[in-house]
């Protein structure tokens, strides 16, 4: 049976204005101030589709026009090992990674695949422009793999220091082009290169947090949890760089409340960062909508020091309407920190307690959970969702892998026309 595009409209979160999606709308053209737009689905009920494979079982709440090959849905299960260790009766782990034993088969071992399969399925097959994605690592790997598998042209911009994350089990299709900012640059520099490239109409920006498909793809983690638990959790934990995944969870929480069958509570959204890169933590603890000042040199230095490199976004969607500040405020959430030593500890403990390895970012989230328990924010009987956003790389890489080499290394300070010309030459 041919897939029918999901029916939805867009809403300006700041003003409430509802309008049509023109196909790749990232913002309300009539917005008086910065605001995310949110998908308003025709189907108000949470309706998993057993007729669709992988992630697309949640297609009713994904703004997509088609389905793509090789997707996998997050897997949620009731934790015994970690839950007992932390003294929690109702800890549920939502895992987006590689662990065939529990049914998780994310090729790139990261929940960034949920973004890629949603964003790319939002694109029309007739789209002539080349997609541009900027990433500090995991997003790049996910989009590269999905585009290669589905023959979708893409330019991916990364900081060269994140190249070690660009490993794949098989060679990719040439439709994937990798561009890097030189050693010493960070995610913000990769964003700069991509933004300059998109000044040419042949290229289109993926949009990051502004793309409703990215958020609603990531929001399937909560849908997986609610499907397994049967209700909205009391608390939600996730490590954040941009905070987009936490925003997505909050948005789907609101949709589930409107459904009415899974509870009416707003789960507390608890986020974590890897110190010393603490931009979101510091901004939230100051309880201000504006991000605290971060010197670019200091930001780059701190990004180099942390183990969880993906948590080092210097331009996160925090302040605008519908952003992370609003998600934390509305959910009565909080922010926590983890040191590199904490992350190493929880990677080892998680392996012992749950039987598989996790990436540094979700280990940061486990530390946040442990801190919240110690501070009395989470009780023994609370229903807790721990979003383990990646893992299983040791098992996946054991099959063999190779690194994807950048085709260009470009200084982010180059003029836009020079960047465009160099990338054009790759096609």
Uncertain stretches of 5 or more adjacent residues: none
Question: Ends: how far apart?
Answer: 35 Å
Rg, rounded, reads 20 Å
What class do helices, strands and sheet pairing give? alpha/beta
* Strand line-up in the sheet with most strands: 4-5-16-13-14-15
pLDDT averaged residue by residue? 95
How many strand elements? 18
Proportion of residues in helical segments: 25-40%
Specify the CATH class of the domain at 75-109 and 214-396.
Alpha Beta
**CATH fold title of the domain at 75-109 and 214-396:** Rossmann fold
How would a textbook summarize the main sheet? 6 strands, mixed
Query: How would you describe the shape?
Result: globular
Tally of individual helices? 14
Beta fraction: 15-25%
**Reported CATH architecture of the domain at 75-109 and 214-396:** 3-Layer(aba) Sandwich
Q: Which key phrases capture this entry?
A:
427 residues; globular; alpha/beta; six-stranded mixed beta sheet; Rossmann fold; five-stranded parallel beta sheet
Kindly describe this structure.
33% of the residues lie in helices and 18% in strands. It is α/β, with parallel strands linked by helices and 427 residues long. It has a domain at 75-109 and 214-396: Rossmann fold (3-Layer(aba) Sandwich), CATH 3.40.50.1100. It has a 6-stranded mixed sheet, with helices on both faces. It has a 5-stranded parallel sheet with strand order 12-8-9-11-18. The protein has a 3-stranded antiparallel sheet with strand order 2-1-3, with no helix packed on it. Helix 2 (112-122) crosses helix 5 (212-218) and helix 5 (212-218) crosses helix 7.
């Amino acid at each position: 049976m041919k897939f029918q595009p999901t029916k939805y409209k867009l809403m300006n979160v700041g003003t409430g204005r509802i309008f049509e999606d023109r196909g790749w709308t990232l913002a309300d053209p009539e917005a008086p101030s910065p605001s995310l737009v949110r998908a308003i689905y025709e189907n108000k009920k949470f309706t998993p589709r057993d007729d669709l494979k992988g992630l697309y079982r949640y297609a009713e709440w994904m703004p997509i026009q088609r389905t793509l090959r090789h997707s996998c849905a997050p897997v949620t299960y009731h934790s015994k090992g970690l839950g007992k260790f932390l003294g929690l009766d109702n800890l549920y782990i939502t895992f987006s990674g590689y662990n065939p034993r529990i049914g998780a088969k994310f090729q790139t071992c990261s929940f960034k695949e949920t973004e890629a399969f949603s964003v790319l399925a939002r694109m029309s097959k007739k789209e002539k422009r080349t997609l541009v994605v900027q990433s500090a690592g995991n997003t790049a790997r996910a989009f590269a793999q999905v585009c290669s598998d589905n023959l979708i042209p893409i330019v991916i911009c990364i900081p060269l220091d994140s190249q070690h994350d660009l490993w794949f089990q098989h060679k990719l299709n040439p439709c994937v082009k990798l561009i890097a900012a030189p050693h010493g640059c960070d995610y913000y520099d990769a964003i700069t290169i991509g933004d300059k490239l998109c000044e040419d109409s042949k290229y289109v920006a993926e949009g990051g947090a502004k793309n409703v498909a990215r958020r609603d793809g990531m929001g399937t983690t909560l849908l997986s949890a609610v499907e397994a638990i049967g209700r909205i959790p009391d608390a939600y934990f996730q490590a954040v760089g941009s905070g987009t995944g936490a925003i997505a969870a909050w948005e789907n929480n609101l949709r589930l409340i409107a459904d009415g069958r899974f509870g009416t509570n707003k789960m507390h959204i608890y986020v974590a960062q890897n110190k010393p890169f603490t931009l979101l933590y510091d901004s939230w603890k100051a309880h201000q909508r504006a991000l605290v000042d971060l010197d670019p040199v200091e930001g780059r230095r701190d990004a180099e020091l942390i183990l969880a490199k993906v948590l080092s976004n210097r331009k996160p969607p925090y302040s605008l309407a519908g952003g992370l500040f609003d998600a934390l405020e509305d959910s009565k959430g909080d922010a926590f920190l983890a040191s590199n030593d904490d992350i190493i500890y929880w990677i080892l403990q998680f392996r012992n307690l749950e039987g598989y390895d996790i990436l540094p970012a979700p280990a940061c989230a486990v530390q946040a959970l442990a801190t919240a328990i110690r501070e009395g924010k989470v009780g023994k009987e609370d229903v807790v969702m721990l979003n383990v956003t990646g893992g299983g790389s040791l098992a996946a890489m054991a099959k063999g892998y190779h690194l994807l080499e950048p085709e260009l290394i470009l200084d982010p300070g180059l003029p836009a026309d020079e960047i465009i010309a160099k990338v054009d030459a790759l096609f």
